[in-house]
Amino acid sequence: MTEQKTEERLSFQAEVTKLLDIVVHSLYSDRQIFLRELISNASDACDKLRYEALTQPALRDGLGEFRITLRIDAEARTLEVADNGIGMTRDDLVHNLGTIAHSGTQEFVRALAASDKKGDATLIGQFGVGFYSSFMVSERVDVFSRRAGDAQGWHWQSDGGGDFTVAEAEVPSTGTRIVLHLREDAKEFLETYRLRSIVKTYSDHIAIPVVLLDTDKDGNPQEETINEASALWTRPRSEITEEQYTEFYHHVGHAFDEPWHTLHFKAEGAIEYTGLLFIPSTKPFDLFQPDRKTHVKLYVNRVFITDDAPDLLPAYLRFVRGIVDSADLPLNVSREMLQHNPVLKKIQGGLVKRLLGDLKKRAEAADEYAAFWEVFGSVLKEGIYEDFERRTDVLELARFRSSTTDGWVSLADVVARMKTGQEAIYYITGDDPEYLKRSPQLEGFRAKGVEVLLLTDPVDEFWINSVPTYQDKPLKSAASSAAGLDQVADPETRDEADADKAPEDQIEALAKALKDTLGDAVKAVRASTRLTESPVCLVAEEGDMSLHLERMLKQAGQGAGPGAGRVMEINPGHPLIKGMAGKAAAGEGGAEAVADMGQLLLDQARIMEGEPPADPVAFARRMSAVMVGAL
Q1: Selection from 249, 408, 362, 385 nearest residue 316 by Cα
Q2: Which of 256, 327, 489, 624 has its CA 20 to 30 A from that of 193?
Q3: 551 labelled as ligand-binding?
Q4: Does 227 carry a binding-site annotation?
């Protein structure tokens, strides 16, 4: 009789409990995916052991060929999914089945738990339900596993509640065996025809045989391989259906959405390799994780090597999923040897060229491309300043919001629509395109019909400084004091505007008085050629940090408050400015009145920039005084 081993009872991490609740109660209609997820995990386990055995052949002693087996016990109402892959230790079981390691996933689960889209399999598929999908069909799940190279096996068990148990167990061979104790309403998964259908639909592309263990009519055991069991990327494209491509994407990307684009090719020449790459249609949960990891698996002659080859794709293409299979790398290549490997760098060049080329073709269909850009545009733009060699190619793919046009526009579109006399492409950075359209800084541009790019992604503050020109046209900030808008002005319009302005000497007197009273709060006070409606606005001196970037750094605790680097522009045609200018030139109103009005104008300009007044109490006092004076 075998000695009873000590059993540990442990609690699931809080996010796992939330995820289990969502999966069990919100994905009922999609619950057949549990088998796809378990087979996919089993395939990954076999890939990992195959790789480890390249340098430690003893790990595979006695295992035979890799395979995944399905076994039904209708009487016990159990379905078993087993593999002879890498297996798990006690710590692996606790870590892999009891916790969610990535902080981005934890945040996503918390947000999903609070949303009204719990039943959206596409959303949950952003990180994959994986093993936890077992509980959609199971009252209880038992996992028996033994890590390759270890003598000790382990037994993990849970009913999907708040805890699980782990105990030592006699596990005869390396690998993992998952026993699902099916719910009463899940007995359909005890039917062999149902399992065949699911495997054919979702797992036919798995390169490892999926074997159904059954008995014939006389009760004799029999085995049936129910998938194609060949690497999908090695088959001719003409023999692969869109459905097969989609299911392979689901497997390799651990995703639920449909791929927006599929790229399958074989490169021949000095370096030979095959690529099967996918661009998702929805944003992966870890897209903006600090490590910016890419997610393309590397194979050598159909043997899995790693899913963490940093030189396989640049970080700005980290949304791409798929595989690359090369015959020009040694089969026993280590992950360390992959760092800065010249063959890998050449493969990267070919992959990037093909991906950007395909995106250029897809960009011809504006509506389709807009769907891609809205999801991944902010990531692709990182390539403008990170990839000098392909900067022009990425820039041609970039799309932007515009002050004059709905939808997305390219830089080529903007150049084609430039006004007579316009020498620069104008842009403004901020947080919200609709707010930027109404910015006082754009009043003159709107009046003259000059198009301005509305840049609202944080990355825009960085790439814009690495692109001084496009088609020989300089890129200029519309929020800069040197925007050069005068060159575009219509002479008739200019004459009419000039006739309605305060005299130049009065404006100069007011500007001096305002600068004297505001002191270091502003860099300068100047007459504006951009303002047509508002009395004042703040702009950045040419060469200085943009107002938006200054605000971003301040919010991150990396910069001082706004002011010293800003120029306050005043509108000589605004009634308030004209009245103040007349009094300043005549010496009327007193220094205190000018000081109060100057501070109010500065605070007003700050508010229009989305910032609070420097001194809210003093601002409220001055406003009250102005309103009392108006009664």
Answers
A1: 385
A2: 256
A3: no
A4: no
pTM: 0.76
Annotated ligand binding at 220? The verdict is no
Does 83 appear as a known binding residue? yes
Q: Which of 224-238, 327-341, 603-617 has the lowest mean pLDDT?
A: 327-341
Distance of CA 407 to the CA centre of its chain: 21
* CA trace torsion 605, 606, 607, 610 (10° rounding): 130
Q: Is 571 annotated as a binding residue?
A: no
Q: Is 104 annotated as a binding residue?
A: yes
- Tell me which CATH code domain 233-367 carries: 3.30.230.80
Cite the DSSP H helix spans in 203-273: 242-253
128 is an annotated ligand-binding site residue: yes
**Residue 629 assigned as binding residue:** no
User: pLDDT category, 556, cuts 50, 70, 90?
Assistant: low
Is the model's pLDDT at 124 over the cut of 80?
no
Q: Is the pLDDT of residue 603 over 80?
A: yes
What one-character-per-residue DSSP string does 513-571 give? HHHHHHGGGSSEEEE-SS-SS-SEEEEEPTTSPPHHHHHHHHHTT-S--SSTTEEEEE-
616 burial class (0-12, 13-18, 19+ CB within 10 angstroms)? exposed
Location of structure tokens 């001084």:
468
424, 453 contact by CB (below 8 A): no
State residue 58's pLDDT score. 92
DSSP tag of 271: S
* 3-state SS assignment for residue 306: strand
CATH of domain 7-230: 3.30.565.10
Decide: 169 and 11 in contact? Cβ < 8 Å.
Answer: no
272 assigned binding-site residue: no
Same fold, 7-230 and 233-367: no
Asked if residue 88 belongs to a known ligand binding site, the reply is yes
Residue with tokens 């054919």: 200
499-630: which CATH architecture? Up-down Bundle (1.20)
619 is in an annotated binding site: no
Taking each helix axis from N to C terminus, what angle separates 504-518 and 575-586, rounded to the nearest 10 degrees? 80
For the chain, give every domain's residue range.
7-230, 233-367, 499-630
Query: CA-based Rg of the chain, rounded to a whole angstrom?
Result: 32
Report pLDDT for 114: 59
481 is annotated as contributing to ligand binding: no
Helices (H), 302-453: 342-362, 366-380, 382-386, 391-397, 411-416, 433-437, 443-447
| 175, two tokens | 């690998």
On whether the CB atoms of residues 608 and 568 are closer than 8 A, the answer is no
pLDDT at 493: 53
Q: Show Cβ contacts of residue 219 under 8 Å, excluding neighbours closer than 6 positions.
A: none
Does 37 appear as a known binding residue? yes
Which amino acid is present at 369?
Y
